[in-house]
């Protein structure tokens, strides 16, 4: 039941802390439930509505307003203009002969490759427990409902969410699902998560296991009947203002299994290397628990490495 708990609370002139105290839950839980009201247990929902002075029948019949999402504008317009001018200048210059010396200097082509790195947006990574509402939070930030959500562990792939304008011209689908062979590996066999590979047509076509609309992500990107499909990561293209400023990466959640045996956790840990900003979601009541603290510490170590 997608009930507008946020709107009803604001109309009642109540703060999140006041609601949290009345329901004997944390302010963080109030915030998460307001973003994803369909996840509120029925008993808690009835009590919640009573506090706000709303009867259940009225709440169920009222339409919830569409998500607005975050609009940071277009912060990189001037940067991209200058980088494109540099790239055009290099492209117009005559090629440089390769020098036959032990350590040849960098060439204009090497600089062009470096420009691609400068044009990459920062990566905001959402991680945490499987029931912490990461995908709900992602949908709220994006102002969409395209990422699958559920009561049970949902996301089973690393989901790279990019702006529709970042979609390569050769790609006509909203969603691409790739297997783990898509990524390169270092000399120790560790996966190298490189978002530039998502623009490589040959590599995407070779290792893509499914492509299509947002239904493709719902089928193959979550736990369920398609568990046998070797899906490791998904790239999703959405027309969201937030994605003008960053890429959003939704990771599989930490489960109640030991972390070292969880395939979801293995995928999540492999993607930590590309995080510029980490948002850790936890359903913890009150202070964050020891398990979450250990996981956050491990993530920070992986990011630094």
State the share of residues found in helices, binned by percent. Answer: 25-40%
Unreliable stretches (pLDDT < 50, length at least 5) are: none
Number of helices: 12
Radius of gyration: 22 Å
- In this structure, how is the largest beta sheet organized? 7 strands, mixed
Q: Report strand %.
A: 5-15%
Rounded mean pLDDT score: 83
Arrangement of strands in the largest sheet: 6-3-7-2-8-1-9
Short synopsis of the structure:
This protein is 38% helix and 13% strand. By secondary structure, it is of the alpha/beta class.
Task: Describe the structure in your own words.
The chain is α/β, with parallel strands linked by helices. 38% of the residues lie in helices and 13% in strands. The chain contains twelve helices and nine strands. It has helices at residues 5-12, 16-23, 27-35, 42-52, 56-61, 77-92, 108-118, 134-142, 201-207, 214-220, 263-271, 290-304, and strands at 123-128, 158-163, 175-178, 184-185, 191-192, 208-212, 233-238, 247-250, 277-281. The strands form two sheets. Strands 6-3-7-2-8-1-9 form a seven-stranded mixed sheet. Strand 4 (184-185) and strand 5 form a beta hairpin. The model has no long low-confidence stretch (mean pLDDT 83).
Task: Furnish the topology, listing elements before pairings.
Layout: H1 5-12, H2 16-23, H3 27-35, H4 42-52, H5 56-61, H6 77-92, H7 108-118, E1 123-128, H8 134-142, E2 158-163, E3 175-178, E4 184-185, E5 191-192, H9 201-207, E6 208-212, H10 214-220, E7 233-238, E8 247-250, H11 263-271, E9 277-281, H12 290-304
Parallel strand pairs: 1-8, 1-9, 2-7
Antiparallel strand pairs: 2-8, 3-6, 3-7, 4-5
Helix pairs in contact: 2-3, 6-7
């Amino acid at each position: 039941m997608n009930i507008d708990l946020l709107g009803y609370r604001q109309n009642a002139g109540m703060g999140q802390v006041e609601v949290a105290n009345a329901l004997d839950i944390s302010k963080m839980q109030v915030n998460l439930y307001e973003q994803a009201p369909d996840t509120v247990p029925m008993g808690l929902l009835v009590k919640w509505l009573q506090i706000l002075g709303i009867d259940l029948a009225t709440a169920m019949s009222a339409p919830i307003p569409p998500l607005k999402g975050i609009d940071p504008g277009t912060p990189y317009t001037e940067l991209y203009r200058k980088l494109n001018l540099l790239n055009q200048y290099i492209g117009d210059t005559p090629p440089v002969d390769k020098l036959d010396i032990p350590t040849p200097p960098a060439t204009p082509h090497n600089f062009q490759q470096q420009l691609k790195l400068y044009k990459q947006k920062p990566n905001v990574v959402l991680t945490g427990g499987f029931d912490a509402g990461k995908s709900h939070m992602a949908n709220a930030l994006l102002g969409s409902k395209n990422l699958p959500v559920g009561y049970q562990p949902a996301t089973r792939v690393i989901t790279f969410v990019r702006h529709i304008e970042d979609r390569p011209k050769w790609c006509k689908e909203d969603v691409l699902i790739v297997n783990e062979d898509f990524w390169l590996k270092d000399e120790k066999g560790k996966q190298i998560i490189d978002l530039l590979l998502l623009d490589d047509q040959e590599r995407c076509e070779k290792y893509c296991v499914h492509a299509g609309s947002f239904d493709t992500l719902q089928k193959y990107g979550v736990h369920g009947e398609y568990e046998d499909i070797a899906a490791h990561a998904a790239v999703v293209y959405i027309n969201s203002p937030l994605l003008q400023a960053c890429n959003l990466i939704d990771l599989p959640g930490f489960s109640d299994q030991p972390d070292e045996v969880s395939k979801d956790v293995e995928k999540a840990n492999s993607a930590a290397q590309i995080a510029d900003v980490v948002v850790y979601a936890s359903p913890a009541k009150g202070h964050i628990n020891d398990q979450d603290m250990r996981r956050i510490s491990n993530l920070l170590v992986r990011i630094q490495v």
